[in-house]
Amino acid sequence: MKNKVALITGASSGIGLEIAKSLAARGYDLVLTARNDKKLQTAVTELMNLFPVKVAALAADLEDPDSPKAIYNFCISKKYTVSLLVNNAGYAIASPFHKTPMEEEEKFIRVLGISVIALTKLFIKDMLNSGGGQIMIVSSVAAFAPPSSIQTLYGPIKTFMNRFSEGLNVNYNHRGITSTAVCPGYTVTNFHTASGVQEEMDSVPSFMKKSARRVAEEAVEATLKGKKVCVPTKTFKLIVFLLKLLPHSLFPLFSKRLAPGRYDKK
Question: Is residue 101 left, alpha or beta, with left meaning phi > 0 and alpha meaning psi from -120 to 50?
Fold first, then answer.
């Protein structure tokens, strides 16, 4: 019996790599994509040394409008039938909105939003033909929080992705396809350094910083169970619960300790 196949974007490090490990431990063959080919190949070697599964990789930059189709064609050419699609790739823009060129904003929206839609649109057709599948969209607790004074578009795009995931469930659950919006809080990865917001991350209380492995494990469990939303760890489940109850006008009053920099005036 052939193993199921999972495709993971942004898989060379952080949450994406830990998701790959979690799925490989469950017997999934993997197709990994990321824009840094060297890191991607290192991840492939690590996974193949750890798990008795097949691991393929394709370097692709999701800022390129042609990348989703190239990733899909790669899978078709290798005869990989993807039953679990993990839309994980992402980053943040550190510069203020008024200083960020429109071209950068468009690339950002493409990676975090448009590419997710494009990949889902491509692979969901095969899932329908094969009788079902699972989709994971790595979103963020920022989807539930009030708009912040940094990363102006990050929260709104994540909110959009949560709603997109809801729409997939409404339209395709009866066809055997589930979509899970995974909404982690502060996670210890290279994301913040790469995005230029490490200073804010360093100021976050240690109890709010969660490991990528823990986040990934909860994300995979929720996705395989077909849950619609997953907020990893009890800490951030509580925070999201409070965010839904508290008026947005009150949140900045205690956010300076929990989310330094997010609501400071720029």
Answer: beta
Q: Containing domain of residue 178, as a range?
A: 5-258
Separation in Å, CA 233 to CA 53, 93, 185, 188, 221? 29, 26, 9, 14, 13
CA distance 118 to 253: 39
In CATH, what number is assigned to the domain containing residue 71? 3.40.50.720
Q: Is the pLDDT of residue 95 over 90?
A: no
Question: Token match 């494990």: residue?
Answer: 217
Confidence class for position 145, pLDDT limits 50, 70, 90: confident
Q: Is residue 266 in a domain?
A: no
From residue 148, give the alpha-carbon distance in Å to each of 101, 151, 163, 183: 19, 7, 20, 17
Strands 133-138 and 29-34, by their bridges, are unpaired
Q: Report the candidate in 125, 28, 26 with the shortest Cα–Cα distance to residue 68.
A: 125
- Mean pLDDT value of segment 73-78: 97
Provide the CB-side half-sphere exposure for 98 (13 A, CA).
2
pLDDT classification of 147: cutoffs 50, 70, 90? confident
